Amino acid sequence: MADAVRGLEVGIHEVWRRYGAVTAVGGVSLTVGAGEFVSLLGPSGSGKTTLLMMLAGFEEPDSGRLTVGTRDITRVAPNKRDIAMVFQRYALFPHMTVAENIAFPLRMRRVGRAERDERVNRAIGMVKLDAQAGRKPSELSGGQQQRVALARAIVFEPPVILMDEPLGALDKKLRQHMQSELRQLQQRLGATVIYVTHDQEEALTMSDRVAVMNGGQLIQLGPPRELYDRPADAFVADFIGEMNLLPATLDTLRDGACTVRHAAGTAGATPSRSGLGPGASVRLAVRPEHVELVPDTMVHGAPGVGLRGTVAQSVFNGASTAVLVELPGGDRLRADVGARSDVALLRPGTAVLARWPALSAIAFPDPG
Amino acid sequence: MAASRRGQLPMSLSVLLMAPLVLLLAWAFFLPIGKLLLTSVTEPAPGLENYRRLIAEPLYRQVIFRTLWIALVCTVSALLLGYPIAVLMARPGRVAVKIAVVCVMIPLWTSALIRSYAWIMLLQRKGVINSVLLSVDPGFKPLNMLYSNGAVLMAMTHVLLPFMILPIASALGSISPDLPRAALNLGAGRVRTFFAVTLPLSLPGVFAGCLLVFVMSLGFYVTPALVGGPQTLMIATLIAEQATTLLNWPFAGAISCVLLVLSLGLTVTFKRLLRLERVVAHD
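^ Those are the sequences you sent over. The predicted structure of the assembly is below.
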């Protein structure tokens, strides 16, 4: 099975879809490589599900083209696309057994009985459901139903598999287990997977690349690491991982680095793009794990090296402690400090100085 | 009190609450029916004379078979006409759906008597259909449509159609829209999607609708009595004739007993079939 399946490249070219006055997908272009695992990540209403429905053929784009390999599928009927889909609620046929469900796509393709049975058995084995083959979906747990849906989607060896939040209905522990199982299965099959999720952690752990969508637009496409370290705008910065976003003013600019001014002091940062001049309002983005806290008394007389504030709250998380620092002007800054840091410093009411390397903070232009 | 589970009434209170209905039914329904059925074996002389007569006389046998046959044709045509409408009704949103719902519900809220008279207006010798045909072709010879099997079948199917459509629409409505989509996605065309997924999942509604329409048409009185004639005599009309015109209550009781056994027997058989279907299809 593993060498029989080869993923195909999926192309989305300038695709638009409007519902009345609402633009669900506004001119998205995206190429997913053969055998690649790409997540469409975004809040609800970002257009990610509409895009998936158009790929499956349940919705038609107003304009633009969809391709699989060299074939244009924009106007191809859904049952002629050879693209499998795993639904959020599994969509198993309740009147068929596990084996009958999995055999369904083969029966529709008029695969002979002997070959059909063999392939069904192999798919059942791959998702470890041999003991449940004769049961009805209603007799299975959520995780088992999920596996049947998966087996049914891979049994006809489609070059492209679409997944619509397939793990959304499972509890956290099972979800994490299924994430790694799904990823391993995809790598074994070599199929191209397009995976819709609103869970950024899931997108980061599973994908080769992540496409972040918002308001019907593709905001940023890149490997998880790039999205995390170099978000394209304040939305991506806020959506992926934990991020402090503070309103500030650009102060000085030199050699691709800058300093920004905030009511609580000044700090170093990297401008997100050229064209930002001194005096521009910016949003200062810095990840909690990059924030270092030092006692305020230690740095008296050394201006320009951090934001001054008082500790409002400390939450022990095991590996780290999340410290909320209250800044003058009402902003709050979160710092994740290591387990071995100075305990006295974390006590509420302590005056601290928050600082970070200029390279680990980004100054985005203020969107409004 | 400790024995009663949360949300459940104590046994004594339940009995007390049900008592008025049970008493009313016993006094106003079961007692008279029991008496009627009893007279059928006690009068004019104790024994099964009434039943022997019912079976022996060809006219009565004919009425029973005609009733069964009309009920069957009615059920089949209601199913064939009703299923597509139910499919339309189960689809959410569209304007056509709202129109379909109104078209199904309004007849349901109108008395069967009025609907039957509407058919008379339509079908009679100087009725709507004949006048229209006459205005098109002045030399046209008016059709005799009323008081025929066809008229009874048409009117009964129309009157009973909502009882077929509503259970099927409810069964179709409970099918997740993801299921036909999944079938399409997995390679089934629209027709195969319907026969492999939608139809089997709607069968409980189909069985419920068929049972309702069949049993109701077995005992249907108003429409056949108004639209039909002597050639279309059905069981219910026969009972009424015996009881109110000929005042032969014992014989009316015997016919009622046959109708009751037929209806109950069919209901039980259908229920059996339905359960069997569940074992095979849903479990």
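Chain A touches chain B at residues 56-58, 77-79, 82-85, 87, 89, 91-95, 104-105, 108-109, 136, 138-139, 152, 156 (CB under 8 Å). The mean pLDDT of chain A is 90.

Shout if you want it in another format.
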